[in-house]
């Protein structure tokens, strides 16, 4: 046994001695090479050049890539870089140099030629050499004889001696010429030096060898890499730069990230050729005799450097990256790292294998925000080392090297397929074609790994496409640079944008260009290309920006473009967005939009400027377009467009980028044409046309969510409203179309009909209404996001919204008076604000800390589960949603492991919406973004203005406009559900906002929202668990764990929505056996010797139990602080939303008047004023009562009337009052008389009403009563008044009653004598034919005798004339009592007949005597029996008394009164 041990030890010692001997030999060879005499070295180099070098005729310098940015590469340094001041070239003074210069003049240029795939891989431009592993350098520094500066240093790109290390930022430094830049860029490998001017080893890392394979390097700057940021690196012999320790043991093939992290180390590294290597050897005949090994150089602070080496490194790196990677057009490197592995062999090989070597180089460039890396593969002769299965002689077979990137800490990795760990890895030296070089591969590596080189050796159904920019204006014209497959100029490339296809333009093998067409879409769309006849297998996602929210590229200096008749409009643009050649010509044109058909119509209108130097500014004079007559002059809004007139002159391409303005009204251009068409009042005509058209469209306001009453409520309603880009207190406070507002919100997603709500708030935080002013909140028929399908009218994003909602605002209000009919119709009828009377604040629940939860009903508890759980889900199948949370264990503290968890991710989904996931980024990856947002598993970013609001299927995701680090993300679903995620110092909180339609329809850790905390702990089966909040163990086991998720669908729980990466399923995060700390009071679980921690917790947290618990568990002050902050915020939100919202609603502003305040909350007092020339009518002030109603007006509703109308109204009111008083009074009198008469007639059917008689009528009646046909005396005719007497009856017929009935007055006048007998009846009972009932016209009284037998009354004029001619005694009641001249001794029959004085009231003849009906023979008439005996006593005085007329009958006594007038 001892012998065996001895033999083993001996063999081991022998092997170690052998290895050390080889190292010494290599070191001796290096020393000999380094210390060799210069002359001998030069002579040997010349001999080698003569023997091995084939001089290639210098072709013309390679042209830069024909793109705008590349065109400027050879012309001038980057505009963004600090320009060095030109310096006179130094004249070479050494004479030997001049002689040598003449000996080899002119030196051939270094060029890059094609290399065959079967040849030995060498540097570009060389003929393959017969010896493997030889890195042949062309011309062997022949350029050193002619490119010398004043110090004698040779600036040939292949010089092996480092330049003087004297960085300078002084003015008047070095300026690089285009020829020099082209010379530098024509060299494949970047600089690496094995000597310096001071006798050192330059960049050579002699400390890296087989015994020590890596070396720590401080970068002294921040280098972003794969989401993390590092200020150091470790240079490894094994072909990578690493930033953390690699695993102790490697298993092949390598798989990253390490799944068992953190139990096993997962290194962060950049692997250019990750394989175990050792320093190789080179042949003495190799032209490049720089020492084999590893080289490393850092060039810092390049932006301000003016020394020659700094300027050349900056310019070369900048243009190589700009022309090599799409999307790097503005990149300027700040720091550059160059790492070179020269002649490295594989580990484990035999001695002869040391000559089988690879040479490759890594160039890192960063501006501390973006990072790019260039992989230059010069020679690849071996693939794998012996531990990976390679042979010991050639390094062939086994598992080849790993090429790619690993972020570390178990996060993410990128393997460069198909080359990495594949036999085709040798093709890396012949592929890539970065900057036209085979063997050059370029990547962007700061946040994600984006390849900048083509790949022709990969095939799959879905291949990733690299393109830039990743977004563009919906109107089109965006030039998209595409990298993916390797392109051929003779093969057609087709780009497919959603539903539109365009042909690509070939630039080089590594790039094609496609110009985005006009897309009727928004958000992320499919973007794919096909090469030749292949199918569309290279795919990506392209973001379409709506025109109203797109990146602004044409700027307006003032708001004149919105005015009705501006004098000038000043515009500006970034000239470099078109081309870097500022002498190029551009054209400015005007486009318009309208919807008169089903298809949207974006049409060209006119050329504003046909040819203009690309200066970046222009002044538009509207008066120049007065005489234009456009066919499409009905377009009321449109866009300005700027593009190159001859793009081929500047980019060698017949394509031009297009710049679009935001939507603008076109009154400045179209007003003269509108005036010719509609007259001076063309705004009114345009407004009227729109109003007529809009009235035919459906009503959309009923579907919109109601506006919150105050700004505080609007900010807290994150489920339904988001900030309005046009009026945002954080990013755009100008509020052009809402003057006086400080903030507006709009509905986050379109409603079912595609409409959008808008709510604006003034400086006092109150809702602004269009009933008060034209700047108030205006709902919109069309949402800015449009509605599917987007290719129809009234559904196009932004354009339809401007056509239906923005356009009429200008024609009805902005270009007219606020009190105009059109504006008031627009404000009050077509786009009225919705008040907040019925607004309902959402319910809120949240999770924070380690973690603490507060349910919708306010129950607060702590649940330290480990895994993925359901936070909230809907139990209603018609309105489904899910919000899930992932809890992971907190990092250990000073005392060891922490038995508590924290929220690290949220996943959510609506009914059929896109799944959104929000993750907390790792600790060292939060330098730029704090949270990761994934939409259906794909990362999305919000770091540009146009990407702040992103819409997916059924969901909108946005970050506040003032944040750039994604530390706050808001997700809004179309059902009104909102989820807010906030991160601070690595600690998350999640809040869920639900509308009231989800009451009694929720379940999960946030409980059932029913305003009853007793059912918050509802289990998945619907039962309510009996939980004591103080019993944390019971809550954990009997409630919390019931909501744990798995990857399979569990009934009433669901399946996990989280994106699975690198094989990490739900079981990786879940652990049902995890036992957290169930004691909540720190005084109960902290040991007695940690009293300081207890005091510190009380000091930091006060009475907040959650904060005290978190600090005692973790000793993390930040966690305790933000736990308290999150708790207070959530409690305050719930309290604010629980307040009863009381609002009095709309109080309309009187027309031609204004309100002095717009408040409508209880206690508000609003006063009114009228414009000049108007008078206020009604209440001058109204008050909002506590019950939510405006007080009733005391003097009527407020109005503003013109003075003439006010006067007219007062007159009409007076007339109306008179009519309303007199007419009812007269009606009442008539009704009273009628009722009285009816009553009397009911009591006595023969009753007659006596009316006061006139003097003329009395005289006439007296004479008639005294009339005797045989008496010629007419002495009484001159002294009696005429009396008119009617017997009124109910009927108008002039007939008597039928036989057997009581005679009834029929309307004829009956004359009777003083004895009461009728004068119209003969003694024989027969009527005298043609007898007059009255005396003739020879009588004193005048008038006409009616043929029917009664006297026709006199007209008023005749009566007055007669009264003036004759003296008539007064027979009124007064006369009978006061006149002594009266000798009438007539005794009335009753008091009732003498009620009016001296002349008794005479009853009708039918009241005293019965007589047969008129026309009936006497013989057939029944003899009437008088009721009483007619008076027989004669009067003592006959003057003026009635005499019995002829044809009388027996009197009929009656008490009924007669009607007299």
Written overview of the protein:
This protein is an alpha+beta fold. 19% of the residues lie in helices and 21% in strands. The protein is built from 23 helices and 60 strands. The strands form 14 sheets. Strands 39-38-37-50-49-48-47-46 form an eight-stranded antiparallel sheet, covered by helices on one side. A hairpin with a 5-residue loop joins strand 14 (440-444) and strand 15. The longest helix is centred in the last third of the chain and has 41 residues, at 1203-1243. The termini are far apart.
Layout of strands and helices, then pairs:
Elements: H1 2-35, H2 38-52, H3 68-71, H4 95-103, H5 178-185, E1 214-225, E2 228-236, E3 240-242, E4 269-274, E5 277-279, E6 293-299, H6 308-324, E7 335-346, E8 358-366, E9 371-379, E10 402-406, E11 413-415, E12 432-434, E13 437-438, E14 440-444, E15 450-451, E16 463-464, E17 466-468, E18 471-473, E19 479-483, E20 493-497, E21 500-503, E22 505-508, E23 511-515, E24 523-531, E25 538-545, E26 554-556, E27 569-573, E28 585-594, E29 601-613, E30 617-620, E31 637-644, H7 648-651, E32 658-660, E33 664-665, H8 667-678, H9 682-694, H10 711-716, E34 721-723, E35 741-747, E36 758-762, H11 799-814, H12 821-830, E37 843-848, E38 852-854, E39 860-862, E40 867-874, E41 882-889, E42 901-909, E43 916-920, E44 931-935, E45 938-940, E46 949-952, E47 955-958, E48 968-973, E49 978-984, E50 987-994, E51 1002-1003, H13 1032-1038, H14 1066-1069, H15 1082-1085, H16 1091-1101, H17 1105-1114, H18 1117-1138, E52 1153-1155, E53 1165-1170, E54 1174-1177, E55 1181-1183, E56 1199-1202, H19 1203-1243, H20 1255-1265, E57 1285-1286, E58 1344-1345, E59 1351-1352, H21 1356-1365, ...
Parallel strand pairs: 16-25, 18-25
Antiparallel strand pairs: 1-2, 2-3, 3-4, 4-10, 5-7, 6-7, 7-8, 8-9, 9-14, 10-11, 12-13, 14-15, 17-19, 19-23, 20-21, 20-24, 22-23, 24-25, 26-27, 27-30, 28-29, 28-31, 31-32, 31-33, 34-35, 35-36, 37-38, 37-50, 38-39, 40-41, 40-51, 41-42, 42-43, 43-44, 44-45, 46-47, 47-48, 48-49, 49-50, 52-53, ...
């Amino acid at each position: 046994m001892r012998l065996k041990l001895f033999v083993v030890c001996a063999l081991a010692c022998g092997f170690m001695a052998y290895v050390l001997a080889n190292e010494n030999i290599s070191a001796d060879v290096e020393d000999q090479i380094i210390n060799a005499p210069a002359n001998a070295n030069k002579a040997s180099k010349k001999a080698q050049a003569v023997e091995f070098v084939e001089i290639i005729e210098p072709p013309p310098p390679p042209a830069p890539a024909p793109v705008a940015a590349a065109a400027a590469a050879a012309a001038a340094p980057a505009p963004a870089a600090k320009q060095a001041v030109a310096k006179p070239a130094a004249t070479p003074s050494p004479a030997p140099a001049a002689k040598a210069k003449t000996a080899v003049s002119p030196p051939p240029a270094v060029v890059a030629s094609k290399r065959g795939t079967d040849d030995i891989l060498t540097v570009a431009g060389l003929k393959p050499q017969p010896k493997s592993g030889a890195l042949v350098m062309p011309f062997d520094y022949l350029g050193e004889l002619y490119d010398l500066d004043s110090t004698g240093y040779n600036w040939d790109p292949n010089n092996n001696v480092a330049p003087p290390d004297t960085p300078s930022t002084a003015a008047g430094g070095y300026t690089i010429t285009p020829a020099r830049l082209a010379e530098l860029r024509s060299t494949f490998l970047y600089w690496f030096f094995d000597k310096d001017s001071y006798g050192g080893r330059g960049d050579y890392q002699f400390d890296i060898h087989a015994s020590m394979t890596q070396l720590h390097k401080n970068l002294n700057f921040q280098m972003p890499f794969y989401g993390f940021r590092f200020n150091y690196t470790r240079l490894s012999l094994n072909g990578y730069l690493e930033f953390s320790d690699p695993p102790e043991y490697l298993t092949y093939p390598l798989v990253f990230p390490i799944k068992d992290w953190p139990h096993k180390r997962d290194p962060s590294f950049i692997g250019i050729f990750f394989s175990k290597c050792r320093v190789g050897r080179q042949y003495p005949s190799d032209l490049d005799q720089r020492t084999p090994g590893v080289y490393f150089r850092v060039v810092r602070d390049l932006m301000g450097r003016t020394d020659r080496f700094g300027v050349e490194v900056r310019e070369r790196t900048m243009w190589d990256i700009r022309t090599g990677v799409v999307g790097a057009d503005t990149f300027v490197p700040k720091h550059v790292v160059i790492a070179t592995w020269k002649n490295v062999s594989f580990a484990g090989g035999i001695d002869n294998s040391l000559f089988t070597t690879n040479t490759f180089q890594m160039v890192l460039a960063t501006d501390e925000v973006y990072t790019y890396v260039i992989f230059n593969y010069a020679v690849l002769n071996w693939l794998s080392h012996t531990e990976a299965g390679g042979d010991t002689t050639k390094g062939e077979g086994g598992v080849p090297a790993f090429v790619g990137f690993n972020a570390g800490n178990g996060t993410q990795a990128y393997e460069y397929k198909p080359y990495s760990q594949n036999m085709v890895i040798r093709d890396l030296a012949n592929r890539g074609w970065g900057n036209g070089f085979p063997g050059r591969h370029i990547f962007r590596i700061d946040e994600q790994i984006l390849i900048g080189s083509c790949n022709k050796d990969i095939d799959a159904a879905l291949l990733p496409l690299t393109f830039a920019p990743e977004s563009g204006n919906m109107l089109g014209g965006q030039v998209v640079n595409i990298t993916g497959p390797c392109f051929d100029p003779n093969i057609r490339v087709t780009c497919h944008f959603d539903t539109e296809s365009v042909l690509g333009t070939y630039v080089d093998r590594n790039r094609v260009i496609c110009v985005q067409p006009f897309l009727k879409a928004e958000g992320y769309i499919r973007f794919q290309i096909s090469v030749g006849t292949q199918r569309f297998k290279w795919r990506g996602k392209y973001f379409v920006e709506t025109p109203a929210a797109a990146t602004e590229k044409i700027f307006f200096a003032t708001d004149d473009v919105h005015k009705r008749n501006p004098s000038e409009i000043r515009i500006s643009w970034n000239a470099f967005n078109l081309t870097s050649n500022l002498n190029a010509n551009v054209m400015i044109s005007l486009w318009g939009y309208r919807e008169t058909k089903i298809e949207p119509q974006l049409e060209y209108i006119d050329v504003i400027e046909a040819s203009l130097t690309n200066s970046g500014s222009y002044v538009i004079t509207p008066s120049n377009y007065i005489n234009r007559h456009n066919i499409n002059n009905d377009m009321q809004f449109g866009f300005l467009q700027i593009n190159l007139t001859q793009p081929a002159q500047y980019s060698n391409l017949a394509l031009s980028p297009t710049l679009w303005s935001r939507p603008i009204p076109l009154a400045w251009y179209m007003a003269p044409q509108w005036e010719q068409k509609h007259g001076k009042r063309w705004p009114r005509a345009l407004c009227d046309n729109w109003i007529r058209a809009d009235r035919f469209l459906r009503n959309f306001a009923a579907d919109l969510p109601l506006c919150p009453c105050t700004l505080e409520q609007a900010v807290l309603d994150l489920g339904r409203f988001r900030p309005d880009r046009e009026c945002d207190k954080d990013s755009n406070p100008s509020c052009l179309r809402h003057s006086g507002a400080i903030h507006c919100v709009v509905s986050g997603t379109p409603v079912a009909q595609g409409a959008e709500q808008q709510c604006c708030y003034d400086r006092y935080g109150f809702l602004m209404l269009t009933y008060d002013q034209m700047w108030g909140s205006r709902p919109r028929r069309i949402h800015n996001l449009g509605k599917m399908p987007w290719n129809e009218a009234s559904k196009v994003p932004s354009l339809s919204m401007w056509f239906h909602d923005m356009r009429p605002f200008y024609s009805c209000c902005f270009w007219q008076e606020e009190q105009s009919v059109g504006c008031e119709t627009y404000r009050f009828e077509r786009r009225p604000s919705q008040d907040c009377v019925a607004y309902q604040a959402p319910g809120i629940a949240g999770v924070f800390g380690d973690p603490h939860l507060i349910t919708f009903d306010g129950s607060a508890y702590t649940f330290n589960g480990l895994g993925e759980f359901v936070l909230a889900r809907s139990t209603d199948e018609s309105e489904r949603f899910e919000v899930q949370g992932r809890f992971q264990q907190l990092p250990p503290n000073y005392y060891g492991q922490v038995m508590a968890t924290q929220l690290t991710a949220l996943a959510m989904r609506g009914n059929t919406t896109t799944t959104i996931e929000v993750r907390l980024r790792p600790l060292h990856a939060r330098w730029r973004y704090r949270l990761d947002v994934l939409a259906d598993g794909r990362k999305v970013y919000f770091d540009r203005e146009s990407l702040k609001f992103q819409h997916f299927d059924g969901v909108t995701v946005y970050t506040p406009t003032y944040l750039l680090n994604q530390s706050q993300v808001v997700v809004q679903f179309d059902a009104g559900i909102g989820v807010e995620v906030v991160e601070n110092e690595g600690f998350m909180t999640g809040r869920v906002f639900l509308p009231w339609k989800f009451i009694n329809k929720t379940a999960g850790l946030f409980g059932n929202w029913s305003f009853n905390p007793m059912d918050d702990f509802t289990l998945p089966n619907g039962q309510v668990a009996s939980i004591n909040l103080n019993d944390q163990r019971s809550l954990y086991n009997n409630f919390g764990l019931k909501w744990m998720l798995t990857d399979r669908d569990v009934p009433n729980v669901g399946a996990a929505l989280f994106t699975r990466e690198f094989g990490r399923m739900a079981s990786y995060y879940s652990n049902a056996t995890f036992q957290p700390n169930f004691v909540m009071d720190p005084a109960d679980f902290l040991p007695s010797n940690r009293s300081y921690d207890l005091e510190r917790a009380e000091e930091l947290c006060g009475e907040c139990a959650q904060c005290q618990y978190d600090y005692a568990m973790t000793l993390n002050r930040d966690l305790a602080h933000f736990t308290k902050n999150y708790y207070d915020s959530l409690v305050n939100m719930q309290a604010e939303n629980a307040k009863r919202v009381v609002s009095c609603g709309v109080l309309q502003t009187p027309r031609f008047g204004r309100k002095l305040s717009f408040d409508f909350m209880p206690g508000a007092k609003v006063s009114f004023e009228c414009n000049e020339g108007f008078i206020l009518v009604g209440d001058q002030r109204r008050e909002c009562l506590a019950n939510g109603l405006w007080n009733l007006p005391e003097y009527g509703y407020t109005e503003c009337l013109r003075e003439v109308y006010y006067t007219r109204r007062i007159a009409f009111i007076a007339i109306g009052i008179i009519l309303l008083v007199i007419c009812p009074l007269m009606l009442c009198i008539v009704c009273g008389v009628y009722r009285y008469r009816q009553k009397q007639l009911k009591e006595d059917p023969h009753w007659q009403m006596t009316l006061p008689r006139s003097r003329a009528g009395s005289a006439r009646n007296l004479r008639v009563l005294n009339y005797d046909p045989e008496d010629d005396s007419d002495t009484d005719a001159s002294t009696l008044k005429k009396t008119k007497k009617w017997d009124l009856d109910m009927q108008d017929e002039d007939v008597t009653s039928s036989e057997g009935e009581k005679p009834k007055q029929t309307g004829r006048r009956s004359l009777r004598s003083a004895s009461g007998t009728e004068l119209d009846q003969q003694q024989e009972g027969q009527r005298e034919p043609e007898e007059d009932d009255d005396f003739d016209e020879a009588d004193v009284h005048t008038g006409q005798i009616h043929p029917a037998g009664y006297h026709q009354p006199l007209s008023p004029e005749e009566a007055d004339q007669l009264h003036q001619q004759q003296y008539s005694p007064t027979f009124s009641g007064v006369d009978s009592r006061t006149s002594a001249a009266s000798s009438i001794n007539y005794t009335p029959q009753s008091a009732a007949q003498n009620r009016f004085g001296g002349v008794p009231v005479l009853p009708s003849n039918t009241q005293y005597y019965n007589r047969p009906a008129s026309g009936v023979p006497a013989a057939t008439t029944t003899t009437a029996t008088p009721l009483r005996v007619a008076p027989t006593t004669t009067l003592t005085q006959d003057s003026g008394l009635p005499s019995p007329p002829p044809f009388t009958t027996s009197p009929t006594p009656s008490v009924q009164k007669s009607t007299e007038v």
